[in-house]
Amino acid sequence: MMAMPLWLTKLLIRTRLARFSRRAQRLTDGGTQFLRYYSDRVLCSPVEELLDAAYVPDSTGPDVLDLNTAVLRSDSGISLGRFTADRRGNPPANGLPELRQAIGERYTRINGRSLDPESQILVTHGASGALAAALDAFLNPGQGIVLFDPSSPLFALGAKSRRARVRWVPTWNEDGRCRYLATSFEKAMRGARMLILSDPVNPTGGVLTDEDWDHITWIAGAYGVIVLIDESFARFRFRDPHRSMARLAGAEHRVLIVGSVTQEFGLGSLRVGWIRGPRHLVRACALTANLNAPYVPTVCQQAAARVLSESSDGFSTTLDRLQGKSNFVVERCRAMGLEVAAPGGGLFVWVPVASLGVDGRTFAKRLYQEEHVQVGPGYAFGPSGTEHVRISVAGDDGRLRVGLTRIAAFVARIRNPNTPGTDSASCKQEQHEIPTETCTHLIRPSFSRV
Asked: Do residues 226 and 195 touch, judged by C-beta distance below 8 A?
């Protein structure tokens, strides 16, 4: 772990001699047993410089006269948070203490377990920034990364951009549960470096049970695979309450949790996310984040800390309304003759269109051109998605209702090209309204682009 060739560094890690190196101790914050997970980029990083305040300055605070920051003072009042942010100076590279504290308290409420906000939480530029930091920290070119098929496009794009080999595990939605073959999963995990997944699954809305998670973490432990779990949609579970996967057995060794204020609170414009997990793994993520994109804006972090600290007593009502909208979309699609599986959570409905004789890309393109309705082409979500499209239920109920009416007219026209346009279908719009007791005064979550 000294200034030496990379091959020699890896040899020292394999023989466990690296634990005697001062640089290895410094790099891992004493957790040299985690070196086997670190990517080449982290192993070769200038750790002393990245941990030196001369390169990455600490927060100065309101009582320090900062004569170092090269930021021009302005009298413009464009930013409502300018004065507060200016008095605070640059935020700490790993996030404001009050935000990390709010995130830590959130997980304590969910899990009943305390954690150290200082060393086990890293604030990032949204969930996508957290994903990028983790991929850079632990993934090398040519290594295997396991993804459920289908899953968020950002997972595969991030892996491919780092020249990793994506291993897909086929899944299906059964009564709202995400199902997979144990043999396929175990085969994909052999020799892999990382597993990335979300619960509920984006885009199918399938949820994983405690039995599933026990199996997943047991296999990950057997093969030494890091598990990265995106909890952006975790609170949108219709059947079971939100429970963080950080409570899983073995989580203290290999499970990283990614979250953000985007989906749950509809605050995507803040671009505030986080990683929480074992401090030795979070440290590696912090090093790569400092190289790429440190310093999430102070005012954004302050807003995120406030919203995370607010009461969530009314969220159950929002969840009920979202489930009602999801059920409505499923019923309408089934009325069109599309065999849709009901999701167990999330903000999406996964719609198969192969029975219409078109693939998902063609369906989405023609629907946009002919009816001015946009849905997500399924091919972006994995190999099995080519014959699907994704419909979001996060928008307001009026647009959703009108959009489904247009989709119904479009589907009818595909089946019978002689079917008239949308006029006749629009006249029957009131027959397909979402029940008002379900969606009145709906609190609108933001639409997810991932």
From this structure: yes
State the pTM of this model: 0.83
DSSP 349-391: EEEE-GGGT--HHHHHHHHHHHH----EEGGGG-GGGGGEEEE
For 266-310, how does the pLDDT look when each residue is reduced to its tens digit (9 = 90+)? 898 899 999 999 999 999 999 999 888 888 999 999 999 999 998
> Can you say how many angstroms the Cα of residue 280 is from the centroid of all Cα atoms in its chain?
21
Check the CA dihedral 72-74-79-83 and report its sign: positive
* Cβ(188)–Cβ(167) below 8 Å: yes
Per-residue pLDDT tens over the stretch 413-440: 999 987 665 444 443 444 455 554 444 3
Summary mean pLDDT of the chain: 84
Distances (CA, A) of 279 to 52, 97, 124, 237, 416: 19, 16, 15, 28, 60
- Give the distance, in angstroms, between the CA of residue 343 and the centroid of all CA atoms in the same chain: 18
Strand-pairing partners, residue 198, are 230
Residue at token pair 């079971």 = 240
Q: What structural domains and CATH numbers belong to the chain?
A: 1-33 (no CATH), 38-60+81-309 (3.40.640.10), 315-439 (3.90.1150.10)
> Please, is 179 exposed, middle or buried when counting C-beta atoms within 10 Å of its C-beta (0-12, 13-18, 19+)?
middle
CA angle 401, 328, 370 (to 5 degrees): 40
The torsion angle over the Cα atoms of residues 41, 46, 52 and 56, rounded to 10 degrees, is: -50
Handedness of CA 318, 320, 324, 326 (dihedral sign): positive
Question: What are the tens digits of pLDDT across the range 330-357?
Answer: 999 999 999 999 999 999 999 999 999 9
Query: Which residues of the chain have a pLDDT value below 50?
Result: 1-2, 65, 74-81, 83, 422-431, 436-450
The 10 Å Cβ neighbour count of residue 256 is 28
